[in-house]
Amino acid sequence: MPGRFHLNATELLQEALEEEDSELVAEAIRRGADVNAMWRDQTMLSAAVQIGDIELIKLLLSAGADPNRKNDDGNTALTWCVTTEMTALLLDAGASVRAELGKEEMVDYSSVHHAADNGDAARLQVLLERGDAKCMLDVFTDLGWAPLHHAANEGHCEAAQLLIDAGADPNLVYEDRIGDTAIYLAARGGHVEMVKLLLASGADPALQIGLNSSALDVARQSTNNPELLASIEEALRRR
């Protein structure tokens, strides 16, 4: 390994991750690298997760990498898992959504918000069943959105249903005074099936927060989407 003899084991591990070289990662671990050391502003494990290499992740976990250790921004490796396989691998090693929570009532992002935003129902289900994800259902990102808001904004009905079945409140609003309702976001995006799902789950289409419009207001203004208004008016008549 020319040019690497001056590196200690942990520095070698950092270089191995940068090069996405699993053989070199294994060599660094054999030399006694600290797999829980920070690399720049994140853990080694978080770096491997964002690289997306399952083999690197397995090597670090088998060497004792802590899946719940926080990065400088408060996230964990679980936050940035983009596949169900990767998520399950971390959960098997003891990762928990609860570790992503901080002292504040908000998070920059979380694995649950991430899966909801992507509409990844399989990943979301694994997190709900095995990752203690219910603790994140009423936690907001800096947009003032909980996971259901993210799913509603993108029109991801399967993900939204999973969240509602897990206990997500369809009328949840940040601080009950400011922010968007999930059904407002769905209506704004023209996601009729999402609006219907939220209505069936008890969402209030007339709920207006501060100066924001309600879903009903949006539907009335959406002259090119008559089904949106019809769905809301029918739901209101039945209540």
Topology:
Blueprint: H1 9-18, H2 22-30, E1 38-39, E2 42-43, H3 44-51, H4 54-62, H5 84-92, H6 111-118, H7 121-130, H8 147-154, H9 157-165, H10 182-188, H11 192-200, H12 215-221, H13 226-238
Antiparallel strand pairs: 1-2
Written account of the structure:
The protein is mainly α. It has a domain at 1-69: Ankyrin repeat-containing domain (Serine Threonine Protein Phosphatase 5, Tetratricopeptide repeat), CATH 1.25.40. It has helices at 9-18, 22-30, 44-51, 54-62, 84-92, 111-118, 121-130, 147-154, 157-165, 182-188, 192-200, 215-221, 226-238, and strands at residues 38-39, 42-43. It has a two-stranded antiparallel ribbon with strand order 1-2. Helix 2 (22-30) packs parallel to helix 4 (54-62), helix 8 packs antiparallel against helix 9 and helix 10 (182-188) runs antiparallel to helix 11. The longest helix has 13 residues, at 226-238.
Give the CATH H-level superfamily of the domain at 1-69. Ankyrin repeat-containing domain
Fraction of residues in helix: 40-55%
* CATH domain topology of the domain at 1-69: Serine Threonine Protein Phosphatase 5, Tetratricopeptide repeat
The global form is: elongated
Task: Please provide the count of β strands.
Answer: 2
Mean pLDDT over the residues: 93
Let me know the largest β-sheet: 2 strands, antiparallel
Q: Count of DSSP helices?
A: 13
- Rg is 22 Å
**Strand order within the widest sheet?**
1-2
Low-confidence stretches: none
Strand content: under 5%
Distance between the termini: 73 Å
Looking at the overall shape, the CATH architecture of the domain at 1-69 is Alpha Horseshoe
